[in-house]
Amino acid sequence: MAEPITFFVEFSSPFAQIAAHLIGPVAAKHGREVRWRPIWLAFVFKALYGDRVAQPPIKIDYIFRDARRFAGLYGIPFVKPAVFPLDGRIARRLCYRIERESPAKAAAFAKAVLQAYWGEGREMRSVEQLRGVAAGLGIADADLLAAESDEAAKAAERRACEDALAAGCFGAPYFIVDGEPFWGADRIEHIDRWLARRMAA
Amino acid sequence: MSEPIEFFFDFVSPYGYIASERIEAIAAKAGRKVVWRPILLGAVFKVSGAQPLTNLPPIKSDYARHDFERSARQVGLAFKLPPGFPHATVGAARCFYWAEEKDATKAADFVHRCYRAYFAQGRDISKNDIVAEVAGEAGFSRDEALAGMNDQRIKDRLKAAVDDAIARGVFGSPFIVIGKEGFWGSDRLEQVAEWLRRGGW
Fold this sequence. Notes:
- The complex is a heterodimer.
- Chain A is an alpha+beta fold.
- Chain A contains nine helices and four strands, in the order βαβαααααααββα.
- Chain A has helices spanning 14-29, 41-49, 57-74, 89-99, 103-119, 127-136, 141-147, 151-166, 188-200; strands at residues 5-9, 34-38, 174-177, 180-183.
- Chain A has a four-stranded mixed β-sheet with strand order 2-1-3-4.
- In chain A, a hairpin with a 2-residue loop joins β3 and β4.
- Chain B is α+β, with helices and mostly antiparallel strands.
- Chain B has a single domain (5-198), classed as Glutaredoxin (3-Layer(aba) Sandwich), CATH 3.40.30.10.
- Chain B has helices at residues 14-20, 23-29, 41-48, 58-74, 90-102, 104-119, 128-137, 142-149, 152-167, 189-198, and strands spanning 5-9, 34-38, 175-178, 181-184.
- Chain B has a four-stranded mixed β-sheet, with helices on both faces.
- In chain B, a hairpin with a 2-residue loop joins β3 (175-178) and β4 (181-184).
- The radius of gyration of chain B is 16 Å and the shape is globular.
- The model of chain B has no long low-confidence stretch (mean pLDDT 95).
């Protein structure tokens, strides 16, 4: 099996929901796995820009409109959540905690968090808010409760953010395909064509 | 024939160049014409607070340069970032509005020639005499084009076009407007085509 596609994802990004739906089928088509790396994008921004750069309001409005339109084109559920941005710390750490046992389950959980937040508009910050999603995937409540202060998960989360920076990440979703970086859900189609040409070559 | 679609762009914008080569075929398929609307990103960014792509932290500007080239290659378009990029394009934009008054069809040809002069041939379109030369290649009088660029009425015409673009929510290049629906970026052309085909979704 060829190298997996690394998928750096920030749960608070509207394009994360779109990317989560589109990257799986493209990867599978080319016989690749997707390696989910939930990151805290603010960590990356802080390293690059110091204090967080604010987007002008005109652009933020456009981004939501564009994301809704983009999702609509592919029939991907998308709403503007009542609470934005999302503090996804616990969700990220739970991902890294359960990844130790099962990367597939961690990816399924990440995807379910995105669906709940971006597909249904439910905030996914606290243990209480995450409980239904976690339980639905058979994740033990003890894991959910332990996630936030799981030192190994915290270290894995931090390592993912550092790896993202080292891989040239400056925004998310961000993909690495055999060393080639792609930024944005709108580049998944390029990834598809890129892999098709590599296979042919 | 339905309403034309408006194509806002800056002659300095690589993604504007890439999109300019494809937009007419997309519009024609839907029985639409393209109205070319050159603007000045410097003026637009002053309002939005945005930065040119090549003026960002190196990690992002390097990616942008890489993506310009990869995006052009994907569609088989000659592209070389001109030495000294970015250049001032106020003369080229003025020349367009002068040309449009004379002959809109030839002015559209001027847009293509001017973009190719800059991004394929590496000519310095910040110089009025080079722009006039390109206007000559599009079938206009070089001397008249030079005089047109210095005409106060044409200068005011460009300023009004930029103000109009900003008032209508344009914050980048290319920015394609279909009725009231705005699409930002050459990576949204597939969605533009689909929007025209379906009449929105």
